[in-house]
Amino acid sequence: MRRAWIVYTGLVVVLWGCWGAWSALPAERYGYPDSLIYSVWAVTMIVPCAGSMWFDAFQRGRKGVGYGLLIGLTGAGGQLLLFASLTMGPAFLIFPIIALSPAVTVLLATCFLGERTTASGWVGVMLALVAIVIFALNDGTGKVAGIGWLPLAIVVCFCWGVQAFLMKCASVAGINDTTVFFWMTVSALLLIPVALLVGRPTLGPHLVHATALTAGIQLLNAVGALFLVMAFRHGRAIVVSPAANSLAPVVTVVLSLAMYAVMPSLVTALGIASAIVGSTLLIRSDVCASVGTAK
What we know:
The chain starts with a helix and ends with a helix. By secondary structure, the chain is an all-alpha fold. It has one domain (4-294). α3 packs antiparallel against α11, α4 runs antiparallel to α10 (177-190) and α8 runs parallel beside α13. It is built from 14 helices and no strands.
């Protein structure tokens, strides 16, 4: 079970990679608004939550409630702030900032949990972070209207970095995956009225088809989130966060390139290589640490 995090992280990578490749389809085909996408995502969280509760017991107590709500609100709240920032600024500047959230996780885990890795492991962390930023960069044109989006983007980056750190803290505190994910689901559902109030969505003529497509795609995101919680339980935050966040875009990019039958650019190829090499070094460092501990 020491290396179970590799399996769970791999599942996160596949699920989130597919989700990333197809997540824009509802908006492109039907003009489905972001606020409804968030709402559908929150509802799909119920499915893996119910599955987790079937296999594992729900823990009662203030500690579980506290960790679960903090993890859920930092994640779902960051998602809402992301939508708000995208209405104020360009995606090609916002996403590279948000993509640095694993750096926040690594810093917090190193300072407060005492997590360490080998020299090659730190190289892997840096390569993974480089890959994340490369994948987050988007070509864009036009003038940037003000910088009101910048504080929001920084807050989202901090929220998601803290969320990953708290997942590991909850594991250290003995809170099981089911309890954490239950309160994550509750948090996401509680913020649906906020999303609808802020977004003020208009219902299009293809509401049923768009909602069904969105639900199928967002379910990949929701199940991936559960596996991420499980990965943090078995692995170190300084390894899991960079690996998952760097490799998932690789799957997204490969699927997207296959869908449009184009070859990757040099920058994209560098990002793929950086993600693969970085994650390989992270896994290798964890295996070496396991061997060293066994000795």
